[in-house]
Automatic annotation (TrEMBL):
It comes from the Bacteria. CDD domains: HAD_Pase. One of its GO terms (cellular component) is cytosol. NCBIfam families: Cof-subfamily, HAD-SF-IIB. It comes from Capnocytophaga cynodegmi. Gene3D superfamilies: 3.30.1240.10, HAD superfamily/HAD-like. One of its GO terms (molecular function) is phosphatase activity. This is Haloacid dehalogenase.
Length: 274
């Protein structure tokens, strides 16, 4: 058996239809994780992942957050790539001038999450991820971050579908060479530095912590930001609800995330050794 480490996306992959971990998933991951590291890799911030790690008993294992922009081994930062503040200011200015600030822009750095107001979008994201944001205007965050000389690991833009479509076009027309611009949903855009991806995060862990190759890694995913990871590892597994483009590059397929697809694949693949 050549699989030595497992990576899993969270939303739309590991979580069930109630956006939590099923008892089946918890049970199967716990069977595997002491022999084969089970690492969460997500666009989420670290504290939006740690409560899931606690349920899985994997708090001692690393996480890949913000689509690879931040890689943590417990409290130790193994890798960090931030979005330049000047780019962030241009996006904020466009939102103010073109949309009168109607697009909600969340700003993230490590375990900091700032929202301009505690609105529908902030409450929705809090409900989905079990983390509570701090309320501070985008401009005030920029002032504070300039003092601290830090940038953002991720921007999350949320709003009416029509406005998000216009913002998505603007971002791609102006920043596609510097930023990853990912349409997570019709009403969401996620932004990270162009140099990072889930696969770059995996490579950080394989190079700095685990003496394994990509061919010895398994990864589960469903969406466009999982494609490079799914294609890059030896065992890239797409859940049944994955984008067709993801399925086409996958090594294997498993059940829908609402049907415990990750757990069922783990049981089938590792049943002879666990």
């Amino acid at each position: 058996m050549n699989c030595k480490i497992i990576f899993s996306d969270i939303d739309g992959t590991l979580l069930n239809g109630e956006r939590t971990l099923s008892e089946t998933t918890i049970s199967e991951v716990k069977k595997v994780k002491d022999k084969i590291p089970f690492v969460l890799v997500s666009s989420r911030m670290p504290k939006q992942m740690s409560y899931l790690q606690k349920m899985l008993d994997t708090l001692h294992l690393p996480v890949i957050a913000y689509n690879g922009a931040l890689v943590l081994d417990q409290e130790k930062v193994l890798h960090s790539t931030e979005i330049n503040l000047e780019l962030i200011e241009k996006i904020i200015s466009y939102n103010e001038e073109r949309f009168d600030g109607k697009i909600h822009i969340s700003l993230y750095h490590n375990d900091l999450w700032f929202v301009p107001e505690y609105d529908f979008w902030a409450m929705r994201e809090e409900n989905n991820t079990k983390a509570k944001p701090d309320v501070l205007s985008n401009r005030e965050v920029l002032v504070e971050w300039r003092k601290q000389n830090i940038g953002a690991h991720k921007l999350m833009l949320m709003g009416d579908q029509r406005l998000i479509e216009q913002m998505f076009a603007y971002l791609n027309d102006n920043f596609s060479e510097k930023l990853h611009i990912y349409r997570a949903k019709d009403t969401y855009i996620e932004v990270a530095d162009i140099k990072v991806s889930k696969l770059t995060g995996i490579n950080v862990l394989l190079n700095q912590k685990y003496n394994y190759t990509l061919k010895e890694a398994m990864a589960f995913g469903d969406n466009y930001n999982d494609m490079e990871m799914i294609q890059g590892v030896g065992y890239g597994i797409a859940v049944a609800n994955a984008r067709e483009e993801v399925k086409k590059v996958a090594y294997g397929l498993t059940f829908h995330h609402k049907e415990d697809g990750v757990a069922k694949y783990l049981f089938s693949f590792f049943k002879d050794i666990l």
